[in-house]
Amino acid sequence: MVFNSLPFVCFMTGTLLLFYLIPKKVQWCFLLVCNYVFYTIADPRYLIFIAATTVTVWFAAIKAEKINNEQKEYLKAQKGEISKADKQAYKDKMKRRRWKWLLICLLLNLGILSVTKYTNFMIDNINDIFSGAVSLKPVDIIVPMGISFYTFQSLGYLIDVYRAKHEAQHNIFKFALFVSFFPQLAQGPICRYSDLAPSLLAQHRFDRKNFSYGVMRILWGYFKKVVIADRIVTGLSTIVGSTEYTGAYVLCAMFFYALQLYCDFTGGIDITIGIAEAMGIKVTENFNLPYFSKNIKEYWNRWHITMGSWFTDYIFYPISVCSPMLKLSKWSRKHLPAGIGKRVTVYIACFVVWLATGIWHGAAWHFVAWGLTNYVVIMISQELEPAYAKFHKRFKVKDKAFYTVFQIIRTILLMSAIRMFDCYRDVGTTFRMMWSMITSFRFSTFYDGSLMKIGLTASDYMILAVGTAVVLTVSIIKARKGSVRDGIYARSSIGFYNICAVLLVSTLVFGAYGVGYDQSQFIYTQF
């Protein structure tokens, strides 16, 4: 039951209506039932996996909190009667006990994630390495919907409890609601318990303003998905589906995919946040105008924000401050040149993060290449920062409008080029297609009618142009006003109905439906 299907629209509408008709004290129970109905409709077998994650993480968090409390009570009782050495020894002992439960739960749930998503990838690589000597058959194994999202969200909660950042949730059903909240289950965002749980578990009165803005955001998400993303995917699939489309076609594919991915992913997040907002539930924002970024580092601070913060908090920092890395840092500062010695541990931690990011996106080498290419570009950019500083000191263009535009265009081009690993799904093919933009680029492709032969008509291009202009306009308003909600959504009921009517009619009339179009799932549903 994907977001852009009629069954989901009916399910969502029914949930929103009933949510405010039932007693407020059982709203969270109602949502929990809706979550599991949603997941059961998708595939009843998925329930085994999400239930396993829910129970194991809930239990491990309770154990970690119990050990934390036991430590606090003991030290409080022994205040002034225990030596510093004994106190530290006791803390180390309790830390090992907490770590045991954390480690067991991490291994179990990451193991489930790895087995379901990466078993066949490993089998394929073993067959390639031992060609002829070994011939393993692929395993028919299901990949539960959204397993990467709910696994990371649950483990983030567990690690926060382990670090005593917040208390554990002792009601397993309330914790199950946090793990399985259906709007974000399919494609995120990856919320922190401290951010989502308070509003998710609260009692909600009907708030006309929140409901109105939520509905408008849902419609805005469908507009981006159905009118733009699902329409442009036809031409994109034609180009990347055959190596005959080279040169200028590859450049078109770069821009097509940049637009399609943005409208698809942000459209889905808009629907998620809109559903939650209509119920008074606060879901973390996942995008902040990424195509207005001046460099790739800034881009990744604005794109898929919750994923980036998860990898930073739970992978980058722990690796950076672990004992082996601290020893390496001390050694490198002593034996390596000053500039490199200080950053060795950063290089390693960033490498692990980007390797994990690539693997998280999919079980294929092109995703690994995509992740590591981002890593290389970011590292090179950081190493060139002194040169950038000298350049700006000499030429004084940093705050000039034309230079800002140049930086934005440069970032879009660079990110679009890196994403070609995702488009062609083969590392070798990606490099060949990128090289063809140099060896066989024909400008005539843009005006000789060639682009009319990839499945898109003149009316399609017209709709895409207008739709893109609308998205760009809304983005500019958000950049200037700080919020689309305050900048474009009228505050009166007339404005609300007008905006909803325009979005609804535009989506129904200009959406990509019927023969020739793939009413595809949202891209990030596969994760």
Mean pLDDT: 89
Structure class: mainly alpha
Task: Spell the H/E element sequence.
Answer: HHHHHHHHHHHHHHHHHHHHHHH
Helix content estimate:
over 70%
Unreliable stretches, pLDDT < 50, 5 or more residues? 486-492
End-to-end separation: 15 Å
Q: In words, what does this structure look like?
A:
The protein has 23 helices and no strands. By secondary structure, the chain is mostly helical. Among the domains are: 183 residues, no CATH class; 179 residues, no CATH class. α3 runs parallel beside α5 and α12 packs across α15. The protein is globular, with a radius of gyration of 25 Å. The protein starts with 5 loop residues before the first helix and ends in a 17-residue tail after the last helix. The relative contact order is 0.10.
Keywords:
mainly alpha, 527 residues, 23 helices
Summarize the structure.
The protein is mainly alpha-helical and 527 residues long. Among the domains are: 21-203, no CATH class; 207-283 and 426-527, no CATH class. The chain contains 23 helices and no strands.
Write the layout of secondary structure elements.
Layout: H1 6-19, H2 27-42, H3 46-77, H4 84-129, H5 147-162, H6 172-180, H7 182-185, H8 193-200, H9 208-240, H10 248-278, H11 296-302, H12 305-321, H13 323-335, H14 338-341, H15 344-361, H16 365-383, H17 385-395, H18 401-418, H19 420-424, H20 427-439, H21 458-481, H22 484-487, H23 493-510
Helix pairs in contact: 2-6, 3-4, 3-5, 3-6, 4-5, 9-10, 9-21, 9-23, 10-18, 10-20, 12-15, 15-16
